[in-house]
Design goal:
homotetramer; alpha+beta; globular; FMN binding (chains A, B, C, D)
Chain lengths: ~350, ~350, ~350, ~350
């Protein structure tokens, strides 16, 4: 129970089902005196919103954040920041077809088993819509650590991937295309591929790479709350995530120590950075970078077998909105969770 | 600060440096009335111990656990279980060569930067010796959830890997060989390769796969404390871990939804299990399985450049004990952390 | 930072300033499947509301709770319950007179010192209006532990006090009078006294006694989270509270052991109950009872010296709403916090 | 479960039964670089120890603290400080007489009901011996906040009390007498009274007053973690405590606002200090003072009725060690818990 709070000193608690009155949250522990950039917050919300381009779902969500407390004359006051994001269209859809059925690889079945009841409208609490509140928290967190730069981007879709180290990429290109891939040639391939997937009524997975730059040395709290452990938890808490690796990651497991060790420069920086900016669970001032794997979304516009609450298997035609590839939309969510973790450890380290 | 506690209802707090008087911990929240199997606990410690075979370090560690509280007439009493593991050889080694230097890809530098001081003897708190306390906690956790089966094994060393699904493996073979690989042909290759690495004074990374069976439905606390998110954090908190994936993992990111979705059987089980036993952050009763990536250990028996606390780069010959591949020894640690997570969520779900 | 969450498994996080858009909160960890009585919740809000009788402030507050999540078809779903209470009159008052001054025994000065900024309108976060969110949480908590009976009442105002043990009182009379004192003769004296105080533009303190009946044996988590320790913290977190005692309380400090010990009956109940239903931090099944001391409210309708932010002492005429005695209104708040504590430990003990 | 940790950034977790191998704990979150005064720590232990004077129990406890980690070359390293306090005499006493009986107003009955099992030797975990670990933590906490002065003393025993404000007392006299009362005339009366009580085989309660001076402005985290709320919880977690009041306390509940408000001086200090150094849950820089009520200890050297685990009431002669008044020995425990709270909030406020 009570798994809806994230963070230690900077705590984000969220609430909200996809088709309830509103989503929202409370960000507690935000330092006082920060002049918030509300346009930036709303712009971050816009990045997460569905229906932004031809490749993604066409559902209109307004996603307008209303701040209710913790801010006075434009500045944070140190008291908890309460906010809500009204669900404008919560009654428009028809969910009767999923009321009595459990869709494959959705959370329908486990929610009903665990709680004995579920809000079946659009996935309820397990909907990706829940992440809207995370983006609000992350957009404020970014302003707490304004000198630290966090950039996430889509590094692969299906089998298509960027074949370059992140250092060779121009992060300013991330938002220039619908798939949020800074390598434009790869972006085009991804976009075309997603259009094919969409026509098939199918979905496709992908990965996001996140790079955090200008991190102070010393963030992280061994032995259990190592910086990368908390980053990993943060990422794995995002819907559809199946894996997390930082620095050399799974490739590092194939390497020898003589290849993997990062030699020091006299100033304490390292020549290579297979460590991914974290050693012994503590940031060493080098770039932190990690990669997050997203499975394909479970909602298909195809016929699929579903389980009924009477224990029958029936065939059902998928309908409703359709995200052939949720990965581009997850980019601001990855950044938001990274910002929350880094800001929290930044405050812990003060 | 204060990052040395793991868990919510079942809390393990640990202390101890590799060369202090003793390591130890407190397991708080263990249910009362469990008749503990102390031989099992000591056997688990034995599995973690260095010096078990020709391929690993020869340092002798006794690793004898002494329980100080929380147990009466062989049973847990519901009060905190305090325990220590004395460091018998803590004064025998000579660490003067690392006192003023920071070894590449060790935590020396970041500890000194963060805390302004470090216990330089053998890595201090950042030593893998710290995990001995985790194994104690995990060995008790396993007894809390005695009907749930947790099996971890080495699934790859360097480029050598088991080329079979875990369902085709015989877990009873895991402890039959020095590398803890249940596929004996692969085990032999791994063992031979590690011997080569050892001769080179080098080290090699690898992966561990963990399978958790007979898990009740309903474990996991969305949205932030999803079961796999906490498992991920637990694994990433282990020394040298660079990545975590569960179910389809990073491969899932290359798949289509129509391939990835796990169709239901009428009884709620699923035909495939790409979900890895967890949907929406909640266990669905199918096997939970995940994979953990370990980088090669940083301590080499080779000449390496190190940074001095005067800001100079000097060459230093690595010496002391040498683990060419720490992955086999990490198997019981992976199991211990998995047991702690599962037991905690088990108690939360009651 | 981040001190706006209360509870372990049942967590209430609140936000809101007295003159912001809205107050509200998130109750996380509420078990699923409880059919909520919304009229009861609103009735509890009504009890806390100012302007209920001639003796208290005349400000109109609507205090209408809007639930935004966690409830589906009238039942709790196990997901977090988000709620808001709009501040309807937030712009009507004039607070310019306190913008640059710190009123004696208010939190103005310390908030400004701690945070460097404060929402000076009506006390901001330090206003008793904050407790509205607690009452919502408590009203739900009462429904989680519906078999446990919690009754609080005003046991003294100034020097006037009920001169009877609580066993001789009829709790059904508590709500029959404006001061919430079940002893009607004492109630009348209190009421008359408060009217005198009101005419003087002064305020008066008092105490609340709370009795919790039908508590299961075994609630409480030694050694730090003893049941009475958490009850004490809960009460001390309410505005204007200066003291807490349970069972024999401060009187017990004058007694001998031979007088104080509660002898057992064969069924495990005790003949006397100076322990106050808690022994060693764990409920023993007897009535839990405790007393809470409230200081007089600091806002007077009198001339008082105030400190300016320029470091000058000036005289200022108190104005605005005026609660001559906040104690009757605090009765539902005491009950709410007690309910939150008991429900939390009830869930922990399952 | 898991109620054996205290604190947020500075976390003390303790373990140990009165007659187990050892007591001990882990202090996590202690800042690095503090040169610890070990003689001071041992002297604090000595203050808590039984058998210090003719008025108290004669049991010999060595109470020697052994530090096992977190300290290197005399300085804290920022890693968790593990420590044990061996129980030297754990096998010498005969507890067969209480094995099957529940003594009145002890925790025997509730422990057995809650856990289904108890370590009946000397009270087990519910023994006051548990507080030894708190004194270790507190002695280190005092060194974290070395500029803040914490003085506790016995302010009443039974009906005998100090009839002076604390400002008129000389704290250097506290340790000059067996009852730890700085008013020597009152101390003598208390001491004589306790001797009478001892002869009767009876026990007597009392109160401790604690004064914290030189506190920085700004400690405390509203709304739930107000400074006095956490102080209250800390005190109420000590064995035998029945009440807590700070500043004007229960007397404040009898006062008018015009009497109770603390007028400011131009420098932000206040002329009076009925607030007790805390306003709105935040320290205002004035002295913090509070009072703690202790009931008489339940162990009498008299015949008493006890309950057997067969549901019979039998008469039993109390024996074993006998503390006629535990209050003097509780003085260092009150100080230790106060130090832990203040140090924690001090670190939170940095």
């Amino acid at each position: 129970m009570a798994g809806n709070t994230f963070g230690k000193l900077l705590k984000l608690t969220t609430f909200g089902e996809s088709h309830g009155e509103a989503l929202g949250g409370i960000l507690d522990g935000c330092p006082a005196g920060i002049t918030l950039d509300f346009e930036f917050i709303q712009a971050e919300m816009q990045r997460r919103k569905p229906g932004q381009s031809s490749i993604v779902t066409q559902r209109k969500e307004e996603d307008e954040v209303q701040f209710l407390s913790g801010i006075f004359e434009g500045k944070t006051t140190g008291t908890p920041i309460g906010f809500i994001i009204p669900n404008n269209n919560q009654k428009s859809d028809d969910y009767s077809h999923i009321k009595d059925t459990y869709r494959p690889s959705h959370a329908d079945y486990v929610y009903e088993q665990k709680y004995g009841i579920r809000d079946y409208r659009g996935g309820g609490r397990s909907s990706a819509r829940e992440t809207a509140s995370r983006v609000v928290g992350g957009a404020i967190a970014k302003q707490i650590i304004s000198e630290i730069k966090i950039n996430a981007f889509v590094s692969s879709v299906g089998e298509i991937f960027i074949d370059k180290p992140y250092q060779d990429l121009d992060f300013s290109k991330i938002e220039s295309n619908a798939v949020r891939c800074p390598d434009l040639a790869t972006a085009e391939k991804m976009e075309n591929y997603i259009k094919v997937i969409k026509k098939q009524g199918d979905t496709i997975g992908g990965t996001i790479t996140c790079v955090i730059q200008n991190v102070p040395i010393g963030l992280g709290e061994p032995v259990f709350d190592k910086l990368h452990a908390e980053l990993g938890k943060a990422m794995l808490s995002i819907n559809a995530v199946k894996g997390f690796e930082f620095g050399s990651g799974f490739c590092g497991a194939k390497m020898k120590g003589s290849e993997h060790n990062d030699s020091y420069n006299p100033d304490g920086t390292t020549k290579s950075n297979l460590s991914g900016g974290i050693q012994g669970g503590i940031s060493n001032g080098m770039d932190i970078y990690f990669r997050v794997a997203f499975k394909p979304v479970a909602t298909l516009i195809q016929k699929q077998e579903v389980l009924t609450n009477q224990g029958e298997i029936i065939e059902q035609q998928g309908k409703g909105r359709h995200d052939p590839c949720v990965v581009p939309r997850a980019v601001p969510i990855v950044e938001a969770m990274a910002a929350l973790v880094i800001a929290d450890y930044f405050l812990l380290n003060k």
